[in-house]
Amino acid sequence: MAGDRKRGGTGAVADALDGAWTAAMGLTEPPMRALQRAIGAARMPWAFLAPNLAFFGLFVFLPLLIDVWFSLTGGPRLFPSQRPYVGADQYRHLLACGNYLDPSTCDQDRFWRAVRNTAEFTLFQVGAIVVVSLATAIALNRRIVAKGFFRAVFFFPVLLSPVVVALVWKWILQRDGLLNAVLGAAGFGKTLFFVSPGWAMFWAIFVSVWAHMGFYTLILLAGLQAIPADLYEAAEMDRTPPWRAFARITLPLLAPSLLVVAVLALIKAVQIFDEVFVLTGGGPGSATLMVVQYIYETGFSGVVQDFGLAAAASVALGVALFGLTLAQLRLSRGKEGAT
Amino acid sequence: MASVSLGGIEKSYGDVAVIHGVDIEIADGEFVALVGPSGCGKSTLLRLIAGLEPITAGEMRIDGERVNEKGAAERGLAMVFQSYALYPHMSVRKNISFGLENQRLPREEIARRVARAASTLRLEDYLERKPRALSGGQRQRVAIGRAIVRDPKVLLFDEPLSNLDAELRVATRREIAALHAEIGGTMIYVTHDQVEAMTLADRIVVLRAGRVEQAGAPLELYNRPANLFVAGFIGSPKMNLLPAKAVAANAAATSLALGGDVLRDLPLAAPGIAAGADVVVGVRPEHVRIVAPGRGDFDGSIAFSERLGAGGFAYVDVEGAPQVTVQEDGQAIRPRGARVGLALAREGLHLFDPAGPALARSAAGA
To answer: CB neighbours of A79 closer than 8 A, spacing ≥ 6?
Structure first.
């Protein structure tokens, strides 16, 4: 009903746009007819796909192939043709490890530290995102004052650049930052958040949850609003206590949305880089070094720019992400089959 | 089962009042239908009874106990929703047992009650299915099963048949009537369909714009509508309502000018009416007969007619009056435009003030 009303209000504009669009499409007809005569109707889909394929190929597939080639070559040279083929040496170097649970026994100890950090970050960040977004979505779905205002407030950080977010929080958390000023005024001593490994990881997770939860809250809010209100009224007539209505009606009906949130947050968390890099620089030491930062430093910002090793690490990360995506697809299809 | 008493119930949303002081007494075991056109407040009234919305003013009692402050869960009522509101992720069995589990009844007791409800509603074969694997009629029965399984004090129905096709609606209507006969509980049934109300209810409450227009047994409403609104709302096709002018009236008879004709000495006792006053004559289609032109009370021409097999309806244009609907027996086909006379049965006349209230009625029906 709301949609109808909206359409009624902007009907004239929509009609005008429709007319203009139809006219513009009419202009494309003669060249398309000529093209179809030239190549035949069966090949027309390829003609329509070609522009997208060209862009996609140039900026995604080609770099992907170059990356794989780099990972199979060695030496410091930049141009692929000047790099000697070394087979799986880079991978052997990357994966060589005495004990995978102890990064210091590995050839590339920083890579394995980064893997462990990223796993820890992902576990807690995704967990926190699911819980915090769900709680926020439920709160925003109630009849509260200034609902629109609060929805905007929670979504706003999503619109900010990750670097801006990290810088703002850095000003708050640094030695002479806002938080320490407040703590100092309250009689506490200064805490050096970026010097303690535990605190650094905590704030890295906190800031990235703060920055991204608005997006996931929106998904869950849409999911909550798709649950018919009369189910809750029926549950009320059935004398269902609120917690049981949540556990037996809200959660099961929200499960598809929760799965989407968990999977999207997981895939993003594994690729985390900019916020944490700006906030902590990976420190103290390598306490918040993430896999993407390792790749960046190995390939571009180190004293020795090891393109081959960096490329091998990116391929490994790509394979891990591919596995996660496959698992997500299987999960969501399994879900459809089950319900 | 329980009695329900509404005293001066009012409901407003902000400044907008939607229920204006409704008084209804519903006896234990009674089947009451709330009918009225869209927006008359009948569903709102049902939600107030259910406790899904708070009452603005007035007092509601269930079995003599004031329940104004009690929420839906505490009132011990059950409701069948228009949309059925079945839990989509639960099997039929779970849907029916969910409320019982909330009451922490023993497992065997729950199983026994679910089995009984399922057999009453012929749902035994569907207990393990999910609601979306059921037809509309089956979903309807699950919704009813979920309501009756808790042995509620009062069973509330919110337009339960409106999502079913015509054939299924008639069948389900019969099932609800049978259910009431079998379990004999207090039931309050909201519908906009006066046929459902007529066929199911012990008593009908006609609502318009948040007020009770008339309450009474179905035939009482049919035979003695208290006002123009009820006269037009109850009965299908509608009662003919013809504007007229009083010519003379006394304690025994009334003479009226209708169109260009004067109907003398109708058996309508309306002594209060002044000569020349505007009135409305009401007569149901079964109380109008088609006769030869000039032989009836007034003449008209056939606009069109409908044959239903066992009988039919003729719609007659009358000069200076609204079209008149006539119920006829047999299968005679009336050619369009044919001149006919219309005779009003003297025992089936109603006289209304154009402002609404009934003024007089000739002695028909119960």
So the answer is: none
